[in-house]
Write a structure and sequence with these properties.
By secondary structure, this protein is an alpha/beta fold. The protein has helices at 3-17, 22-34, 36-41, 44-47, 50-54, 103-119, 140-154, 173-187, 210-224, 242-253, 276-288, 296-299, 330-338, 354-362, 370-373, 376-390, 396-420, 427-446, and strands at residues 59-68, 74-85, 91-97, 126-131, 163-166, 235-237, 260-263, 266-269, 304-307, 318-320, 343-345, 366-368. Among the domains are: 59-190, Leucine Dehydrogenase, chain A, domain 1 (Rossmann fold), CATH 3.40.50; 210-368, 3-Layer(aba) Sandwich (Rossmann fold), CATH 3.40.50.720.
């Protein structure tokens, strides 16, 4: 069977088996279509039904999470863990607490995680989990009650050599602490079953910074292909959570100017640029007071706030989508290019719609897909796992050097693979093929399991 027909058949099967899971369909379609050159060159993947096996999770866990709020009322949420692929290592991927969480989104994120983890060069499989619980507006006590109930089921499915969750949207230092505390209490073990831990009890330097820093390091490698640096460039950033904050921090350190941040309600534009002092204020706003980004203009009145808007109509040379999936539409992509943008590095997972990605690739801008550009977070999670396994603690400088080396290797591997398969400069094809081949070859060697 020709590879194109094989891909179409597998895609039709996925849609039939997973109805209305549109984000999952989108993620799989983008990957499968880019794998045609690899399938043409390696017929053993077709003969062994690798795509059918690659796109079907090894295990899907869904469970009830009952908890009691501050008013004594019983609440019930739904928990998920999609253990997608463990061919090259224990399952690894974050936990997301957000009202939008459903099985399709968990599958999409878990599927992307397989390739992302493979690109890091570390031995980690792919997984994702979470709940439709919304921590916004909840007290610390309510969040603790929920996390403890969530872990009462999750604990039996995770472990340092089995499945190692971490944080994601809605799961920060507070939630990780409550989750690991309950895991330790239930199992009577102190191990590396969760990453993103505090430095005081088994965490790694630079884990909070890793996704944002890593995305900028990846973008720096893209700029090097054109003999350019960040100094003096205007870089728009969406989001205002962990990834966005540390993306801005590293961009400032490299001499860029960042005029935007956003949240689900709107965007702030600061014509003077966000400096280190303003960023410290934003971190306090979002991480401690858990406020909204519109409060920025009350503190810094020269800034402007655009309700319901995203930052993609602000002129820039570089854009860093760092909020959520599908936040850059086809129209946004055209606007970015019209206003002079020629580099997009994705700090969040699948933030660009298929139409937007096509515009970026057709215009041959520097485009870093999320599975490659935002792999810094899981890379340092892998380094945290290594430190936990040895009961040692590496210095911040050492971890930062390792992170820079890993992001350079991810970029170079994606760039080389794209070139090898006839898609010079297309990091979507390069990242997808490089990650897939590593996992697919392992799956063949492990047998039909």
């Amino acid at each position: 069977m020709p590879s194109k027909a094989y891909i179409d058949n597998v895609m039709n099967l996925i849609i039939q088996r997973n109805p209305r899971e549109y984000e999952f369909h989108q993620a799989v379609k983008e990957v499968l279509e880019s794998l045609k050159p690899a399938l043409d060159r390696h017929p053993q993947y077709l003969e062994n039904c690798l795509l059918e096996r690659f796109t079907e999770p090894e295990r899907v866990i869904m469970f009830r999470v009952p908890w009691i709020d501050d008013h004594g009322k019983i609440q019930v949420n739904r928990g998920f863990r999609v253990e997608f692929n463990s061919a090259i290592g224990p399952y690894k991927g974050g936990l997301r607490f957000h009202p939008s969480v459903n099985l399709g989104i968990m599958k999409f994120l878990g599927f992307e995680q397989i390739l992302k983890n493979a690109l890091t060069t570390l031995y980690m499989g792919g997984a994702k989990g979470g709940s439709d619980f919304d921590p916004k507006g909840k007290s610390d006590r309510e969040v603790m009650h929920f996390c403890q109930s969530f872990m009462l089921e999750l604990y039996r499915h995770i472990g340092p050599a089995t499945d190692v969750p971490a944080g994601d949207i809605g799961v920060g230092a507070r939630e990780i602490g409550f989750l690991f505390g309950q895991y330790k209490r239930i199992t009577n073990e102190f191990n590396g079953a969760i990453t993103g831990k505090s430095l005081n009890w088994g965490g790694s330097f630079l884990r909070p910074e890793a996704t944002g820093y890593g995305c900028v390091y990846f973008a720096r490698e893209m700029l090097k292909t054109r003999n350019e640096i960040f100094e003096g460039k205007v870089c728009t950033v969406s989001g205002s959570g962990n990834v966005a904050q540390f993306t801005v921090e590293k961009l400032l350190q490299l001499g860029a100017r960042v005029p935007t941040l956003s949240d689900s309600n709107g965007t702030i534009y600061d014509p003077d640029g966000i400096n280190q002092e303003k960023l410290i204020w934003v971190k306090d706003l979002k991480n401690k007071r858990r406020g909204r980004i519109r409060e920025y203009i009350q503190k810094f009145p020269k800034a402007e706030y655009y309700e319901g808007k995203r930052p993609w109509d602000i002129p820039c040379q570089c854009a860093f989508p760092s909020a959520t999936e599908n936040e850059i539409s086809e129209e946004d992509a055209r606007t970015l290019l019209k206003n002079g943008c020629y580099l997009v590095a994705e700090g969040s997972n699948m933030p660009s719609t298929p139409g937007a990605v096509k515009i970026f690739l057709d215009n041959k801008i520097l485009y870093g897909p999320g599975k490659a550009a935002n792999a810094g977070g899981v890379a340092v999670s892998g380094l945290e796992m290594a430190q936990n396994a040895q009961f040692i603690h590496w210095s911040a400088g050492y971890v930062d050097t390792k992170l820079q080396d890993l992001m350079k290797e991810i970029h170079d591997n994606s760039y080389r693979t794209a070139q090898e398969y006839g898609y010079q400069g297309n990091l979507v094809v390069g990242a997808n093929i490089a990650g897939f081949i590593k996992v697919a070859n392992a799956m063949l060697e492990l047998g039909l399991v």
